[in-house]
Structures are given as structure tokens and as C-alpha cells.
Amino acid sequence: MEKPIVHIETTINAPLQTVWEQYNNPEAIIEWNQASPDWNCPSSTNDLTIGGRFKNRMEAKDGSFGFDFEGEYLDIIPYQKIVYKIDDGRKVNIKFAAHENHTHMFIEFEAEDTNPIEMQQGGWQAILNSFKSYIENNGKA
């Protein structure tokens, strides 16, 4: 059965090179990778190569819940596209597009069947918004 595709996007007030580097840098990922202030990402590893793997530890700050978000890179075109497969088998496609001093990010991901699509879309969009805020408000832009 084909999984529904969920779309999110944002425009970041920063050059493409900065956005690409900060999106893929484990030290930066720890800073921005959370959907809400009561969550955090205490660790991140990232081998941005085809066949390489990533692993981001996601935890509630109160210690009540945590999980590893991990997968394998399937396709990479530097500064343009990243495609990966999450360990549960779902695919994610990320596109980066430069527009003057701004960068537009488009993300498509296959929905999982446990949570409502709107909840998944909201959570992923919140993480992308956190990334945008990190870039624009922490001297990265």
C-alpha cells in the first residue's frame, strides 16, 4: 500500500551555503532539532554520503520519552537535494533552492500510519520552523 506524501516548506533569510551547512552539521542539529521547547536533541551523528547514515536522539526534556530518528542517505546533490530512507522504511526528499540571499526548502515525506497526517505535518513543520529560527536568530544568516 502506498503511503500518503506530506509536504512542508519554508523560506530562510540566509544564503544557500549557510542553510545547507547548518542543516547537515551535527553540532547545529543538536541546537535546532526539536518540535517544541519541551523537547531536545542531545546527540546527532551525520555521514552525509550516499549509503551514509544519520542518527538524531530526540528526547522530552523531562525524561519521560525519547527515541532515535535514524536512516540512510539514498541520493545527495550538494546544495540542491537530499533523499534518505528512515529506518522504518519511509522516504524523505528535501530540496534546497537559492533565491538571492534567501533559501527555500521543500520537504516531502511518506506519512507513517500511527498518527494523523495533520499531526505529522505539524511536527515536521515545527522542526523546520525551529531550524529557520536558529539560522535567522543566532547569527548564522
Describe the structure.
By secondary structure, this protein is α+β, with helices and mostly antiparallel strands. The chain has a single domain (5-137), classed as START domain (Alpha-D-Glucose-1,6-Bisphosphate, Chain A, domain 4). 26% of the residues lie in helices and 43% in strands. It is built from 3 helices and 7 strands. It has helices spanning 16-24, 26-32, 117-137, and strands at 5-12, 39-46, 53-60, 66-77, 81-86, 91-99, 102-110. The protein has a 7-stranded antiparallel sheet with strand order 1-7-6-5-4-3-2. The longest helix is centred in the last third of the chain and has 21 residues, at 117-137. The chain starts with a strand and ends with a helix. The model has no long low-confidence stretch (mean pLDDT 96).
Short description:
The protein has about 140 residues and is α+β, with helices and mostly antiparallel strands. The protein is about 25% helix and about 45% strand. It has a 7-stranded antiparallel β-sheet.
Report the CATH topology name: Alpha-D-Glucose-1,6-Bisphosphate, Chain A, domain 4
Content of β-strand: 35-45%
What general form does the structure show? globular
Strand order in the sheet with the most strands: 1-7-6-5-4-3-2
In quaternary terms, these chains amount to single chain
Q: Mean of residue pLDDT?
A: 96
Query: Over the alpha carbons, how many angstroms does the gyration radius reach?
Result: 14 Å
InterPro entries: ASHA1/2-like_C, START-like_dom_sf
Protein name: SRPBCC domain-containing protein
Family: Belongs to the AHA1 family.
Domain Activator of Hsp90 ATPase homologue 1/2-like C-terminal: 13-136
